[in-house]
């Protein structure tokens, strides 16, 4: 088994909570680049299944960035008025041959096309931190990675770089032909 999925492979993405319960599953994401350090994928109108069994379909194309050492993942959603980013504060991803998996830690950073941003769900994070007994070390790591993520936004680094989303979206379109 490879340490990462190969380019062109259609995979599922599984999001869990700290207590091990499933949070959300994305049915189909095309791998555009897979290395031991990061995976870039794309999807459009994919079925998402929530923990309670409810299903919905994503509305726009999205480029997904997962890193093996960063405690966040970044979803660039391509809309008519620009790219909106939804960033999950999460564990680094693992690929187990079945799916790309990570733990979602509630905090989210929403980034707008003009690169302004909002930190979301701090109350949910605090509630789950207490309910699921997040260790102090995890709490510190997550808060440090919120700062790291914000610095990426401010520096236009990684998926926030000007051509990143366009470049990978073009590659995704080539796979769909």
What report would you give on this structure?
This protein has 177 residues and is α+β, with helices and mostly antiparallel strands. The chain has one domain: FomD-like (FomD barrel-like fold, Beta Barrel). The protein is 24% helix and 42% strand. It contains three helices and eleven strands. The chain has helices at residues 122-131, 136-155, 164-176, and strands at residues 10-16, 22-34, 38-43, 47-50, 55-57, 62-67, 72-79, 82-90, 94-95, 100-111, 117-120. Strands 1-2-3-6-7-8-10 form a seven-stranded mixed beta barrel.
CATH architecture: Beta Barrel
* Radius of gyration from CA coordinates: 16 Å
- CATH fold assignment: FomD barrel-like fold
Strand percentage lies at: 35-45%
Shape: globular
Counting structural domains, the number is 1
Number of strands: 11
The biggest sheet, with number of strands, parallel, antiparallel or mixed sense and barrel status, is: 7 strands, mixed, barrel
Brief overview, please?
Helix content is 24%, strand content 42%.
Give descriptors for this structure:
alpha+beta; 177 residues; ribonucleoside triphosphate phosphatase activity; Nucleoside triphosphate/diphosphate phosphatase; metal-binding; FomD barrel-like fold; magnesium
Structural topology:
Blueprint: E1 10-16, E2 22-34, E3 38-43, E4 47-50, E5 55-57, E6 62-67, E7 72-79, E8 82-90, E9 94-95, E10 100-111, E11 117-120, H1 122-131, H2 136-155, H3 164-176
Parallel strand pairs: 1-10
Antiparallel strand pairs: 1-2, 2-3, 2-4, 3-6, 4-5, 6-7, 7-8, 8-10, 9-10, 10-11
InterPro entries: DUF402, FomD-like_sf, Ntdp-like, SA1684
Binding site for Mg(2+) 2: 106, 108, 121, 124
Active site: 24
């Amino acid at each position: 088994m490879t340490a990462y999925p190969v380019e062109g492979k259609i995979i599922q993405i599984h999001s869990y909570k700290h207590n091990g319960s499933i949070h959300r599953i994305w049915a189909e994401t095309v791998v555009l680049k897979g290395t031991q350090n990061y995976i870039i994928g794309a999807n459009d109108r994919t079925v998402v299944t929530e923990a309670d069994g409810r299903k919905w379909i994503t509305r726009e194309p999205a480029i997904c960035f997962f890193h093996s050492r960063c405690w966040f993942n970044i979803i660039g959603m391509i809309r008519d008025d620009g790219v909106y980013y939804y960033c999950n504060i999460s564990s680094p991803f693992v690929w187990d041959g079945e799916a790309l998996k990570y733990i979602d830690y509630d905090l989210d950073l929403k980034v707008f096309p003009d690169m302004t941003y909002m930190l979301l769900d701090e109350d949910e994070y605090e509630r789950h931190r207490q309910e699921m007994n997040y260790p102090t070390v995890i709490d510190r790591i997550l808060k440090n990675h919120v700062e790291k993520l914000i610095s990426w936004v401010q520096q236009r680094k990684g998926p926030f770089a000007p051509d990143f989303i366009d470049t990978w979206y073009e590659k995704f379109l080539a796979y769909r032909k």
